[in-house]
């Protein structure tokens, strides 16, 4: 027997954020996130170091799942952002960049962390109250009787993913398709607890993006189907198609008894007995006037032939993903055993058709009320298709969140700079009782507020990847990008035409300041104005729910990490 080692005591690391390795890792993480941000973000190639699949992306969901960090404080940051993405799909990079910047800015202040946390929570409450008020100058109401704002939301998601490699006609085509697909998932009849349907994405790689299309109903790939022959599907007396949905194998294979034993009488064939059981199921399906059988797994060829002879269409190998939407759109209950078949498990369909796209053949199931649709999504290669699929799923989720809260925030860095201008204005007009309640001095409050505002502005600056000058105007507090190649002493009004979100054009006599590196920036006299909303196809918008949550999560996570006094590591 080998000698046992003595148990080592745990390692106590005090003030972990003061360690140089943590600061370097945080700075590196921040740099990675910033370099990916926005429509001009730089792409990252992710692979496992020993070959295999390579993912080219700039999306936070793919990047965060591929990066491993060793320090507990950074693990908290990564986990928080990943949790945000799992709930909202959008604004992951915004949350990560803001959180990193807040940690770096607040850490550099010579103020107790408990004081910084109290002040930053007050600043967050000012932001959230403003964003949720009617007076907010950086939000837009979404009117579902008009499509312009919804189209802008979807287009903004697609254009922020450069690895999708889309040109303008492709973006326009996909924007319309995604919105159309989303409309199919909205129930036709208003209910108190209405639930949105589902859009199933069907992959077609190696085709043009503009070949993508959307169809109401559910497509299931069936390579063996014969398109030339018309479908002979049994219908009920009400001209509906009765559906049976099986989530169990109907292949006739014997179950695995494990370590047990099976006793079989002489002359009895288990295979024949199993097949007879399946044929009895087929007879019951015929008697119950079922017209379509869909099986998640495999159907025995003899049973398939029997069903076909009785004008029942059989679709097997459907897989797991279509089962839930299929159950919902038909009203059928998945049957988990071939030995217990109840007529109450059946559902119904309006029609069944065959579709062909590229070299693939499909059965298209059309329900009575369309709450499920199929988006046939095309792109040139596998890598670009994977990125486009994530972008389409994000856009769909953004529309779902917008239904719950019909608001949008101005994009292109304008919400961040506008909020920073608002906080600078508010922090200069607070009463002394506020500082007393927070147990801080006015100087401390101003230092934390300045760090908070610069962190917001650093997110807007992260949209710049070409060393261009970035401005903010002194009226609306919006973000403006100067074309590259002009000196800093230029007359800015001659160089900028539209702000980052596209809502303001340079028709007024605006005054400017440089956004980058401006500590102690001048404060806008009075609260930043609310610009008139001029809806156009060039408007850049962000999801209201996702960005508000990202703002809250970034600050709360930064406060949590700043409050760390010790890291205790088990060395055994």
TrEMBL record:
Q: Where in the cell is it found?
A: Cytoplasm, Cytoskeleton, Microtubule organizing center, Centrosome; Cytoplasm, Cytosol; Nucleus
Provide the coiled-coil residue spans.
none
Per its UniProt record, what InterPro entries does this chain match? Answer: Chaperonin_TCP-1_CS, Cpn60/GroEL/TCP-1, GroEL-like_apical_dom_sf, GROEL-like_equatorial_sf, MKKS, TCP-1-like_intermed_sf
Question: Can you name one GO molecular function term for this protein?
Answer: ATP hydrolysis activity
Alphabetical GO CC annotations of the entry are: centrosome; cytosol; kinociliary basal body; nucleus
| Keywords for the protein's UniProt record, in alphabetical order | ATP-binding, Chaperone, Cytoplasm, Cytoskeleton, Nucleotide-binding, Nucleus
Which GO biological process annotations does it have?
A: animal organ development; chaperone-mediated protein complex assembly; cilium assembly; developmental process involved in reproduction; protein folding; system development
Summarize the subunit comment.
Answer: Component of a complex composed at least of MKKS, BBS10, BBS12, TCP1, CCT2, CCT3, CCT4, CCT5 and CCT8. Interacts with STUB1. Interacts with BBS2 (via coiled coil domain). Interacts with CCDC28B. Interacts with BBS12. Interacts with SMARCC1, a component of the SWI/SNF complexes; the interaction takes place predominantly in the cytoplasm and may modulate SMARCC1 location. Interacts with DLEC1.
PANTHER family per record? MOLECULAR CHAPERONE MKKS, SYNDROMES PUTATIVE CHAPERONIN-RELATED
Q: What does this protein do?
A: Probable molecular chaperone that assists the folding of proteins upon ATP hydrolysis. Plays a role in the assembly of BBSome, a complex involved in ciliogenesis regulating transports vesicles to the cilia. May play a role in protein processing in limb, cardiac and reproductive system development. May play a role in cytokinesis.
The family assignment reads: Belongs to the TCP-1 chaperonin family.
Give the protein name, as stated in the record.
Molecular chaperone MKKS
User: Which source organism does the UniProt entry give?
Assistant: Egretta garzetta
